[in-house]
């Protein structure tokens, strides 16, 4: 089978089983959320995002939107449910704020249930997956060598775009529109190897450990997410420098912690706006009071994010990440 099609089918078959099981549940959306369908959708969205750039742009753009709609919907459930659970154990959070998060979680679950039926993922007219598989069979798939060279260029172009995002160079001023956006784009570089099922591998050249030693924590080096999928029967590979890949993972984790710490203030502020009818600024300030935090907390988090990104830039992590294409095992 053509490798590109095989990669899609691997995750489509997994999603098909998840949807079949969800359809048997009284609450399909909640089932998908609790059974990690979001990861499957991330893989499919990542594949679509990549192939959209290297060929059949219109076809893969449409596919990406289908997968992204489901993934975003599960993400909204996760956002509110995670805060509802964390606030449950927080003695300083007023009960009505937790209730707001719980209500929003239920609302987002209902919205996803409607999408699942309206967009024909499940139900009597469940033909979405069948249509997607039929569309993929008609794609202009590349030969392995050509494809790997295109994927290498794709990585290099993505890195150029990331380095052109000068927000961190000037200093981050917004958590959601800048820090979250930059982290999300970094994260895709670590998702593609998992989505591509073995044709991206890491290699330790022996020349990067000293430059990356600050980032090579036990947690990062031993993370299951930094283990490349088995090479399988692939012959052509895109090779990434292992220690710079670890450093990339470190940056994603560090920015993720900052994002999560900052978003708790905005989550509380949203609840206060809706339940106490406060203005945005007053609600944010009250969120600091509720958590006993300094009013400069967001500013401090933005400064920390800027510092982390400058460390990554100074260490040339992105510049040195891609080694190149190689033919192995023949």
TL;DR of this structure?
The chain contains 14 helices and three strands.
How do the strands and helices of this protein lay out in sequence?
Layout: H1 3-24, H2 28-34, H3 37-54, H4 57-88, H5 95-118, H6 128-137, H7 144-164, H8 167-170, H9 175-195, E1 200-203, H10 209-212, H11 218-221, E2 236-241, H12 242-275, H13 280-291, H14 297-314, E3 322-327
Parallel strand pairs: 1-2
Antiparallel strand pairs: 2-3
Helix pairs in contact: 1-2, 1-3, 1-6, 3-4, 3-9, 4-5, 5-12, 9-12, 12-13, 12-14
The H-and-E topology, N to C, reads as HHHHHHHHHEHHEHHHE
Number of structurally distinct domains: 2
Query: What is the overall pLDDT average?
Result: 94
Uncertain residue segments: none
* Sheet having the most strands: 3 strands, mixed
Report the portion of residues in β strands.
Answer: under 5%
Content-based structural category: mainly alpha
Number of strands: 3
- Helix amount, in percent? over 70%
For the biggest β-sheet, the strand order reads: 1-2-3
- What Rg, in angstroms, do the CA atoms define? 22 Å
Shape: globular
How many helices? The count is 14
What gap, in angstroms, lies between the N and C termini?
Answer: 19 Å
